[in-house]
Structures are given as C-alpha cells and as structure tokens.
Target: DUF1499 domain-containing protein
Amino acid sequence: MSDASRSRIAGLSLRFVIAGIIVAVIALLLTRFGVLHFRSGLIGVAGGMLVVGAGTLLGIIGIIRGVMGKPGLAPSAIAAVAGIVILAVPVSNALGGGSVPPIHDISTDLETPPDFVSVVALRGEDSNPLTRTEPADLAEQQRAAYPQLQTLIVEDDIATVFAAALEEATAQGWDIVDAAEPENGEAGRIEATDTTLLFGFKDDVVIRIADDGPDRTLVDMRSVSRVGISDLGKNAARIEGFFDGLKGRL
Model:
C-alpha cells in the first residue's frame, strides 16, 4: 500500500466521522420537531452512528500505521478519539438497556396503580396502552428489576404533601396537565408530561396522594412511556428522582 493510500485512509476516517455526526444530528432534529416518525428518526440516528463507527475503525487503523511511521497519524487520531467519545453515549445506553426488563409502565403500587384521567386525551393512537396487560408478567418483571420502588409514606398531613408534590413536579420541568386537590376523603392527583431533551419523546406521569390517618400520607407514582417497548430504566429513575426531591421539600 502506498503512502498516498495510507494518507487517504486517514482522511476518510475523519470524513466518515463528520458525515455520521451530521446524519445523526439531522435525523434527531427532524424527529424532535415532528418531521420524522420516531422509528424513522431512530433508524437515521443508528445509521449515522454506524458511519461514525466505520470512521472510528479507520482512524484506529490509521493510528496503528502512523505509529509505524506511515503518514496520517494526526487526522486518524482525531477521528478515532472523536468517534469513541460520540459512540460512548449510545453504547452506554445500549449496555444499560440490556440490564433492565423490556417494559415501559412503572408504578410504585402494583396492586392498584394510579389511574390516568386527563392525560388520556393527549396520548395519540400510536401511544402504548395504559392497561398494564402487556407483557402479562409486567408486575413480576418490575418487582424483580426495581424492588426499591414502593409507596412513599410521609409523616405529614395530606394538604402539605400535595402542595410539596405539585411544587416538585413543576421543579422537575414537567408540563402539568391536571392537579386535582384531595377533598372529601378522596386522594389528590397530579398528572404531568415529561418531554425528553433529544428526541422529544413524551412520558406521562400520575401522582396519587392519599390520606392514611392523622399526619400520615401515602404517595404513589406511575410513569409511562408513550412509545417504545423498553424505557431503558428511565421511568424508574424518574420516580426515584421525584421521590428524592419530594422528601427534600418535606
């Protein structure tokens, strides 16, 4: 192989990485603003990442040849490092997703999960159902994967807890859809939607605040992804984050 060919490999590695980034970013933005269906957007991003991966591999080859005294070490190193950094996020998410069950409807109360009311009208026809019937062993999978998710017991009156929960839901950056205060012995209910930063995926949450006697309140939360089979653990993390924030306020 001539020096010119080796140098060409180095140049191609950098071009591949840049081209892959451009493809992925365009697909992501088109999905974020509703131009592409989310499945098409994911395919576009995946395709871009494959191109980045090819450029990274070429960059590594160029580094090896550069260490041996061949030309093209600098662009190869740039391509390889940039590619590895860019691929770290999707690879990390993919590895993390393999350690959680393929479910997307998470509730702290598996026997009587909080019901959505106002959010239902906002969910499109392509949204995941709210019946919790698929998969059939949904509760068992959640219990095995997230045993720490339980009803939050607060030693405080229901009005105080409801106000703090509404403040925390707002602080989380969620769009509040409904906030039904507890009255006449009925539990309070907060419904909201969280929109993810990159793809703009919408996940819906409902928080139930129930009286359990003098100065004792039960807080349950359910978080459901509108699309996708696996949530990669995001709904469970959302519930934990909300509970941590609520406990801090109380």
